[in-house]
Amino acid sequence: MCLLHSEINSDKMAKTDKTKSAKATAPKVLTDNSMKFLEKYLNNPSPTGFESVGQKIWLEYMKPYIDDYIVDTYGTAVGIINPDAEFKVVIEAHADEISWFVHYITDDGMIYVKRNGGSDHQIAPSKRVIIHTDKGPVTAVFGWPAIHVRKSEKEHTPKSTNIWLDCGARSKKEVEEMGVHVGCVITYPDEFIILNNDHFVGRALDNRIGGFMIAEVARMLKENKKKLPFGLYIVNSVQEEIGLRGAEMIVERLRPNVAIVTDVCHDTTTPMMNKLEQGDFKSGDGPVLSYAPAVQNNLLKLIIGAAKDNKIDFQRMAASRYTGTDTDAFAFGAGGVASALISLPLRYMHTTVEMVHRNDVESVIQLIYQSLLKIENNHDFRYIK
Q1: Which of 4, 117, 184, 327 has a 20 to 30 A CA-CA distance from 264?
Q2: What SS3 class is residue 111?
């Protein structure tokens, strides 16, 4: 989710209305091959502006399920089914993860950083990182003064301006000889794990889990031999974390008629969350559907109908002015595109231990899939006809 979302939360009053269907859950959709792809895709670094390696992994998985694909100048990847159809429907997620840039190297070899997206300075101290250079990856650590030497009455807290990297060098020259220079991008090496059988944990679930889910929709359409009456564009956008930039570019190129976007939202049942400000959303209770000016109400009704018809539990969010996701870019681009947002509840956003529930992942996949089957060729979503 873009940093914009956290900036607008104070302006948002969210309300949930959990719709249950006899405690039903969507049928299992994830295969062993799906899970291998998910692990490979999540473990690969794809920082904002440097998503190309991850996009290659995504496209390779997609190719058996699509008719064609395109990649734009900045790296947004689009798998296409029925490329000759005039009516165009998009399902979309974003591919980039938050990261850091090398900002300043001191004479004694310490490296100061600058955010690339909404990176959290609070989690940085004592974390290992990878600095990506032309000579290959360089391992470093975020250092921090030991508890023994910090004065409790003047306790320092991590800030973006006082955290630094140590790569074991003793001079700026030694750092540069490793290939490190100002502008090198930095990611965390934390990898995908599963907790208690049904909780997926790792960095960059925001929002490569979305790219995974839309790829699974393409797989299901192919394996179930579904013939869509329109062109389907499975879009994995770049640069969402710095302001929806990839979506802004690709919507003008594709000029679709409909867009269903998937991203993550906060699970607000963990400690230190304010439900009055953030809303009431829980992992395991199903996808979250947003109400907002950017969300086209007739498309939203179609999605709700698909959920009810297929006994897929879902939750509701009031997002006020903005959704803070690529939905805004699609809705207000290309002269206006009928757009809706299906969100996946996530714990610990913008950390290296982001967590989602397996059932929610499967439910989002099923909900997008079933919604597509309800859309007709030349479907008219206008309010006034």
Answers
A1: 184
A2: strand
